[in-house]
Amino acid sequence: MSDERESRHGAADEGEGTAAVSRPSGKRSARRGRNASPSDTGSIATLDRPASSQKADKTTGKAKRTGTANPFKRLITFLRQVVAELRKVIWPNRKQMVTYTSVVLVFVIFMVAFISGLDVAFIKGVNWLFG
After folding, report:
1. How far apart are CA 97 and CA 94, in angstroms?
2. Phi/psi of residue 39, each to 5°?
3. pLDDT, tens digit, for every residue of 14-42?
4. Which residues are CB-neighbours of 32 under 8 A, at least 6 positions away?
5. Would you say the C-alpha torsion 82, 84, 90, 94 has a positive or negative sign?
6. DSSP for 64-76?
7. How many angstroms from the chain centroid is the CA of residue 64?
8. Contact in structure between 45 and 54 (CB atoms under 8 Å)
């Protein structure tokens, strides 16, 4: 009975390796490397879209960039977008802010002491060596 269980688990383990669902890695090149056939060549953009749409995007992008919009309108649009992004931010509460600030201050004090100690040690070493 135990041999039968082991063989079933062993077969299941082997099957899991081949049929496992891959998690997204966030890297398009890694995904392409696993899934691409040897005949697939070209850039990442070529795999995603046909070449005709790439050329159309390039020409439309140039037309959009060369537009001479009112600089004040662009500034107002930019500021509205900044405000919209700041509304999405999750701001820390008072307790979190105190914690974060104290952690940063302790780290800075430690690093200042460490660098100062190294500086003093190097000064004494140089004075001993050449003094």
Report:
1. 5
2. -80, -15
3. 444 555 555 555 555 555 555 555 555 55
4. 40, 44, 47
5. positive
6. HHH----HHHHHH
7. 29
8. yes
